[in-house]
Amino acid sequence: MSPPELQRAGKRLAERVACLDCFRRAESVAASLAFDGEIDTADTVHMAWDQGKSVYLPVLRPGRTLLFAPYTPTTTLKSNRFGIPEPVVDETKMVTGQSLDLVLVPLVAFDEKGCRLGMGGGYYDRSFAFLLRRPDLCKPILLGAAFELQKVAELIPQAWDVPLHGIVTEDRTYPIRLD
User: Helices 42-50 & 3-18, crossing angle to 10 degrees?
Assistant: First the structure.
């Protein structure tokens, strides 16, 4: 996709996310900054800031898990070992996934049942495994953020795969278990 197409896709993604009750109700939203061809969530992040929401970015931790660091327009970022930008903040200011209301999850591929194929490190699955043990929990909502072209007919989930509550692309919303 050309840079203008990527920018339009990110803007359309933000417009779709804005229409969701789970976004309107969320006080805390986590997203990852676009990396390696992922859909750009910058417009969604700016919209969250404009609405007074707390925004967080994932930070890699030992044991292939994630913590989430506060992210503001003035936050300093540095690249982690994979080249993904992370906030430079004191670890005491970071939160776990259980503290978040909504998480925009990056992915490589998805299907309409809410299965997600990630980059292969298992960071999101390990960090949100508590949702497999406690399906009654109302938060966080895990919302895949993707391009429509990343949709596949079917992914075969593994026992450790944490399913998404929904997926939003530039063209469509797939509400698996939203709202």
Answer: 40
Nearest Cα to Cα of residue 174 among 158, 163, 160, 162? 163
Residue 37, judged by CB atoms within 10 A of its CB (0-12, 13-18, 19+), counts as: exposed
pTM of the model: 0.94
Structural contact between residues 91 and 70, judged by C-beta atoms closer than 8 angstroms? no
How far does Cα 145 stand from its chain's mean position? 6
3-state helix/strand/coil string of the chain = CCHHHHHHHHHHHHHHHHCCHHHHHCCEEECCCCCCCCCCCHHHHHHHHHCCCEEEEEEEECCCEEEEEECCCCCCEEECCCCCEEECCCHHHCECHHHCCEEEECCCEECCCCCEECCCCCHHHHHCCHHHHCCCCCCCEEEEECCHHHECCCCCCCCCCCCCCEEECCCCEECCCCC
Note the pLDDT tens digit of each residue in 130-153: 999 988 788 999 999 999 999 999
C-alpha distances out from residue 48 to 17, 35, 130, 150, 159, Å: 10, 20, 26, 25, 33
Higher pLDDT among residues 125 and 37, named by residue: 125
89/59 Cα distance (integer angstroms): 10
